[in-house]
Structures are given as C-alpha cells and as structure tokens.
Amino acid sequence: MGTFMDVHSGFVGVTADQLKEAHEADQAIEAEEGVHFERAWLDPESGKVFCLSTAPSREAVMRIHERAGHPTTEVYEVPIQVA
Amino acid sequence: MGTFMDVHSGFVGVTADQLKEAHEADQAIEAEEGVHFERAWLDPESGKVFCLSTAPSREAVMRIHERAGHPTTEVYEVPIQVA
After folding, report:
1. How far apart are CA B79 and CA A16, in angstroms?
2. Which residue has the higher pLDDT, A83 or B51?
3. Residues contacting residue B54 through CB under 8 Å, at least 6 positions apart
4. Which residues in chain B are closer than 8 Å to A42, comparing Cβ atoms?
5. Minimal Cβ distance to A80: which of B5, B19, B81
6. pLDDT by residue (tens digit) across A43-83?
7. If 0-12 CB within 10 Å is exposed, 13-18 middle and 19+ buried, where does residue A25 land?
8. A2-77 has which CATH code?
9. C-beta separation of B2 from B77 below 8 A
10. Shortest Cα distance, chain B CAs vs residue A26, angstroms
11. Which residues pair with A80 in a beta bridge?
C-alpha cells in the first residue's frame, strides 16, 4: 500500500455539498480496489481539487475516480511526508 | 486565516532528510508572516511536493517559501474540505 495525492482541474464554483457528494461517490466503491480516500481540498476559484488516499497503485486510484465520474491522470505517489 | 495547498516541482530524487530540512527552513521563519506549514508530501519520482498550510494570504505563503529557498507561485486557497 502507498500514499497518493491526486489533482483534479475544472471544479470552478463547486460547493461544499457537491464536493462531499463527489467524495462519497468515491468512497462508495473504493473498497473494491483497496483504495481509501482520506481527505480532499477544493479551491473553487481555480477549480483545483487535491485528494489524499492510500491505495495499492496509481492505477487503482485512477480507476475509482473514473468510475465515480471524475477521472484524472494526475496521480502522484507520495512516499515521503513530513508533519 | 485560510487553508492553502501549494505545489512545487523539481524535487526529483529528494530524500526524506532533505524534505525535512526544507520543511524546517519554512517553519523557522513562518511565524513572521503568521503562516503555519502543517504537512508536506513528496513524490521523488516526479519531483512534486504538496504543502498544506494555514496562513493569512497566498502571498504570505509565497514569501515564506521564497525566503526559505524554494519559491513557488502555485499556491491555492482551499476553503472547502472533506474528510
């Protein structure tokens, strides 16, 4: 299992409720690929969304996001973290 | 105060120790601008770093990163979050 950060574009003007709905659409099916989406952050002005997840692979993250209706190819494995 | 996610490129091959050092360089001066860097995630293959912070403005985040030696203009305010 690895930790991943992925980036979406085009979410301009999206609300908190809409982000929650998109996140729940991921979470509803994530277990099928062994993925867990932990957090997501949205900038509604630029339309960028950042999602933090744990998953077996980049491809698993991409498959869940695609099936949930918000595909992205910008998925980074982030094995190094500081807090 | 807001929450910000910023993105750096070019950190290919950077180690955990080097990321910790860069993060500590931010933290050493962040209080001067009312910024707090909470977490950072690194993909050493693509060279992308994502930093999560709280700060009074985008510009404050940019000034601290610049003074600490790793400038970026890619700073997003992320007022909407899910977990």
Report:
1. 9
2. B51
3. B1, B2, B3, B4, B35, B36, B38
4. 78-81
5. B19
6. 999 999 999 999 999 999 999 999 999 999 999 999 999 98
7. middle
8. 3.30.70.3090
9. yes
10. 12
11. B42
